[in-house]
Amino acid sequence: MHKHIERAVAEIGTVLLGKEVQVRLALCCLFARGHLLIEDLPGMGKTTLSNALAKVLGLDYKRVQFTSDLLPADILGVSVFNRDTTQFEFIPGPIFTQVLLADEINRTTPKSQSALLEAMEEGQVTIEGKTRELPAPFFVIATQNPSTQSGTYPLPESQLDRFLMRLSLGYPDREAERKLLMGEDSRKKLSRLQAVMSIQDLIAIQTAVDDVHCSDNLLDYVQRLVEHSRNHTDFVDGLSPRGALAIMRCAKTWAFMSGRGHVVPEDVQMILPSVVEHRLSTSANALVGSHGMSHKLMEEIAVIG
Amino acid sequence: MSIIWQIPRNCLGWILVAQFALILPHIERLPWWVMAAYAVCASWRVMVYQGRWSLPPKMLKLVLAVLCFFGIYQTYGTMVGLEPTVALLFSGFCLKLLEVVEKRDVYVIIFLAYFVALTEFLFSQDFLVSAFIFLSILLISTALVALHQHSYDTLNLSSLKKATVIFSQALPLMAVLFIIFPRFDPLWKVPLPSHQAKTGISESMSPGDISNLSQSGELAFRVVFDGEIPARKDMYWRGLVLSEFDGRTWTQAQWKKDFLTESEKESLLGAMTNPLQYTVYQEATHQPWLFSLALAYADDKTIKAVNDFRLVRTDNIHSRIKYQVISDQEAMYGQTLSRIEKTLEVSLPRTGNERARKFAEMTYSRSTGDRDYIDKILTKFNRENYVYTLKPPLLGEDTIDEFLFDTRRGFCSHYASTFVFLMRAAGIPARVIAGYQGGEINPISDTVLVHQFDAHGWAEVWLDGDGWVRIDPTAAVAPDRIEYGLENAMAEEGSFLSDTPLSPLRYRNITWLNSVRLQMDAFGYYWSSWVLQYKGERQLQVLQSLLGEVTPWRVAALLMTVSSVVLLIVFGHLIKGRGEPKAAVYVKWYLRLCRQLEAAGYVRDASEGPIDFARRVDRSNPQWKKTLLSATRSFVRLSYEQVSQREQSLLVKQLRRDVLSIMYQLRVK
């Protein structure tokens, strides 16, 4: 299984140069059965990463470009009157897929954003009073521009909370950028990407993650972190139990990806910024405190206590 | 099929250990077959535990019990008395192992064990024995703890640890109860061990019949002087006055049973000009006589003073006793001798030892007086070829003649006996005194130890005007015996304690061994005087110094105070334990390592994970980086991985080793 993981990382690395940690975190999010939000300025490779992820994992994927005039029916699907059968027939929207790439999710109105809500949490959608199951696995990989940019509708907190991780890619380092500039068109490369694992492999990894051991000492550490975020006035809102669960799930997955059968504090620290940053800060200061709050939290809590 | 309850493995192990510890001190006393019965019962129980055998049927148990009764009757010839009863208790204690079916039976065994533990005190209350019984009680408590623990180890040390904690919590309370609990005289007396032979000096003395004087290193008594300890050569501990001679054996005179009256005792005390005060701690002799220096006075209801200036107890001494004596060797008292006494103290058998009688008459006729005669006899012993030995030849009919003129080899009894005979033959009243001479001074406790091998016989002679005067003819032959003790006197012959090669007293020349022996002896003395003798006066004194005035309220207050302090401490620990879980050992070791590294300049931030820290330090490439990585690995595994108990203890050991190694290397730098 670890072979698959390493190959996936290497494969994605061919299109997204010099971002191994972010690639690993993104994979970690998916292996932990979570939805991923990639936030960065335009042109940083958000879409490339999301496309590559879907392709490499061998999943069936659809892409929706979110615009300000997008309607919920555009995502979920719509019933159309069939003249032959004289009945309304349901045309499934792009959400009926294994991976939904929601590009620039904060460009659309809250109404359309919330159409994603039920789908993300429950793996099902209700259209015209009828509940329809989504295929499994079902991932949403959304990208968004920083909310300070013009023409954005910031995601509501409730919806942010539904993303297991929020990643930022950041500028590439000099060497990686040089390679990028010298290399061929990334679109071509993207089309050449191959799936390195099957759905069975993916499910096997997801199940194996559940068996990773969490000792009492580690749970103590996580609880100290969570409690601190709730008690300390520097944090506007503390971490919710869902947030705490998210930390545990990601830490377990990270430990598994690192080839360990048990979680160590380093795993928690590794995934913590991506998992808690978007939960700790309100949407209003989302970018202001980027990477600030989670690091503050880590620094204030002793690992061994 | 019903479910069979089993004694937990750990508990069974501890019960067997505790039982063995209980039997151990009795091993010399119990008949051999009780040990065999224990071995059989214990192995049977183990087989039952392993599921190979089943418990014995009722009939067999009955037969075993009857066999035990029969065996005890066969061994002791009676069912009454201390030893048969203890043996019975022990055999029942062993057989009970075969009767454990339910948990409550284990309780029976354990509570019985507490009771059985105390039986040893009936035989000895030595501090070593007491320490061992404390240990046994700890082991029994461990079994009790183990009964309530879940463990699959055979002898889990955590049970012992827990029992030790509980035990030590009880200690302060025990100490207080020891101090304040009133000592009652026993309501019933435990019948005494019957086999204990009479030890110490005997009632009669017949030197001709002994060819090899057996000596023992046992303590006869111990003396604590209030003032300075007198010189060794002046310490003649009088015990018996032997006045009757039948030609072979000296015995106590039947007629001499007069005790001093109170007024006579008063005048004796009044006659003392230079009194010496001391306390004697005498071991059990099962005889009534006491030992004291010459002209002894004791203010004690149970002690009588005999008119030959000895002290005698009203009943036999069956356990260690203590008595205070005032003595003055120079007191001018009892300067008259009645006619009857005078006749009796010169009486000899009508016939026998003719050569000696003639020699006495001849020598006396050539002497200028009694004193000159005594000097002449002593000079004869001193100048002529007389030998002091512990291995004298046996003597025939005329013991005095044979010794005086033929064999010329003997120990103190020979010389004393012969000397007194020669005195009486010349018409001078004289008698043989049996007792002890000298003693060893233990500098640690400042006491004089008188051992059985210090037993001695000497003479007293009546001189008009001086009264009874002590003459030790042995001193004329072997002055070393009196000045330095038997060991030095016998250095050449090598016969000192030759029949007890293991006696530590034989090895007094090995300095450290001797100092250990003296330490043990001093401790035994303090034990006996402060623990065993802690009653009556002494208890009252201690209580008074503690409480000022001894009232029930104050005693109760003392008891309450100590118990509440103990309870508060225990309670405090419980509360503290609840608030924050106690840090595990490995966490303590790891944090210790971090502190040491911090001092060496490698600071781990509290929020830094151990692996990250190790990697960071590793980059600066210190000498001990491998050890640090190994320590970190152990710590991480202990903290975050699922490890079995066995693995855990191994890892903790490994961690400790690594931490100590790094600390050592840092220090060397």
What is the CA-CA span between the terminal residues of chain A? 34 Å
Assembly category: heterodimer
Please bin the fraction of helical residues of chain A: 40-55%
Roughly what is the average pLDDT of chain B, rounded to an integer?
Answer: 83
Number of strands of chain B: 15
Question: Count of DSSP helices of chain A?
Answer: 13
Task: Describe what this molecule looks like in 3D.
- Chain B: This is Transglutaminase-like domain-containing protein.
- Chain B: Keywords: Membrane, Transmembrane, Transmembrane helix.
- The complex is a heterodimer of chains A (305) and B (669).
- With 305 residues, chain A is an alpha/beta fold.
- Chain A has 2 domains: 210 residues, P-loop containing nucleotide triphosphate hydrolases (Rossmann fold, 3-Layer(aba) Sandwich), CATH 3.40.50.300; 95 residues, Helicase, Ruva Protein, domain 3 (Orthogonal Bundle).
- In chain A, 48% of the residues lie in helices and 15% in strands.
- Chain A is built from 13 helices and 9 strands.
- A 5-stranded parallel beta sheet of chain A has the order 2-5-8-1-9.
- In chain A, strand 3 and strand 4 form a beta hairpin.
- In chain A, helix 2 crosses helix 11.
- The longest helix of chain A is centred in the last third of the chain and has 17 residues.
- Chain A is globular.
- In chain B, strand 2 and strand 3 form a beta hairpin.
- In chain B, helix 5 packs antiparallel against helix 6.
- Chain B is built from 23 helices and 15 strands.
- In chain B, the strands form 4 sheets. A 6-stranded antiparallel beta sheet of chain B has the order 5-8-4-1-13-12. Chain B has a 5-stranded antiparallel beta sheet with strand order 3-2-11-14-15.
- With 669 residues, chain B is of the alpha+beta class.
- Chain B folds into 4 domains: 172 residues, no CATH class; 305 residues, no CATH class; 31 residues; 84 residues, no CATH class.
- In chain B, 32% of the residues are buried.
